[in-house]
From TrEMBL:
Organism name: Phaedon cochleariae (Mustard beetle)
Protein's name according to its UniProt entry: Purine nucleoside phosphorylase
Function: The purine nucleoside phosphorylases catalyze the phosphorolytic breakdown of the N-glycosidic bond in the beta-(deoxy)ribonucleoside molecules, with the formation of the corresponding free purine bases and pentose-1-phosphate.
Entry's family note: Belongs to the PNP/MTAP phosphorylase family.
Domain Nucleoside phosphorylase: 55-307
Sites where the protein binds phosphate: 62, 93, 113-115, 145, 247
CDD domains the UniProt entry points to: PNP-EcPNPII_like
Catalytic activity: inosine + phosphate = alpha-D-ribose 1-phosphate + hypoxanthine; 2'-deoxyguanosine + phosphate = 2-deoxy-alpha-D-ribose 1-phosphate + guanine; 2'-deoxyinosine + phosphate = 2-deoxy-alpha-D-ribose 1-phosphate + hypoxanthine; guanosine + phosphate = alpha-D-ribose 1-phosphate + guanine
Amino acid sequence: MTTNGVKVNGHGNTQNIEYFGDNGQHKTEDDNRSTYESLVQTADFLKRLVPFKPEIGIICGSGMGSLADALRDKIEVPYERIPHFPRSTVKGHAGALVFGYLADVPVVCMKGRFHYYEGYPLWKCSLPVRVMKLLGASHLIATNAAGGLNPNYRVGDVMLVKDHINLMGFAGNNPLQGPNDERFGPRFPPMNQAYDRDLITAAKKVAQEVGLPIHEGVYTCLGGPNFETVSELRMLKMLGADTVGMSTVHEVITARHCDMTVFAFSLITNECITDYDCQENPNHEEVIDVGKMREEVLKNFVQRVVKHIGGK
Ligand SMILES: O=P(O)(O)O[C@@H]1C[C@H](O)[C@@H](CO)O1
Ligand SMILES: Nc1nc2[nH]cnc2c(=O)[nH]1
């Protein structure tokens, strides 16, 4: 049966729903990419609610939503109120854009990000970054909870991301896949200077001031939601990754595509298990707990990095 372009096939107790385009071609959710115009609508909706222009977009990683609580003169907009926005489904990701001032710099925080494992295609996971750009943000700060692959990293340490390995991109999955709109950026953006060197240098100094153990390294993202096998982790280590997570890479690619300056860091929430005899298991509760444990020092750290960017 076909109604309004939606085909419903009954198979016993289950229904398979397929989508067909106007001329009958098969469509998937990936084909319904947001347009420049629809994201302008989203940004215009938010501009009507917020009387200032955010300079910096901040994405709060798992267990790090409280970064947004440090904002002054907060305006919180739940994702379900925002046109064309996805919904947060993960514990530790509240699901709201929070506008306000951090160190007197106007910012917008994503209290809750979108992940591929939630069922969202990568362009949709990264859609808020384009909205931040349309709102006027020139910088992106992306934070994530990650497993430490580098043997020198301890739980609670922070790794400044100097580069990433886009493993999902190796398999042809990229947030920029599909028609390119030049109003966002070029068809073939470079990615060799994705993470701003000056900000890394400044952040190292800030980390020392606030007493945060700091490293600089390479992040990689897998689709999740399962944590990795021992063999996968050994392979990632050999490839040169220092931390592994389930986010950030596609957001950074989207930000660089629209010429935003990027700073990112991983909070090490667990040491990756590369030993078959180890009986421990990584788990999401532990990830959130470590975020909470480092809450105060991370707020202080991010606030000072923001101040540095705002004063430039
Ligand atoms: O949103 P991030 O990348 O900070 O969250 C990581 C990846 C998974 O969502 C979760 C696993 O515990 O933490
Ligand atoms: N993929 C992945 N994501 C994480 N997020 C927090 N810890 C981990 C981890 O060990 N692996």
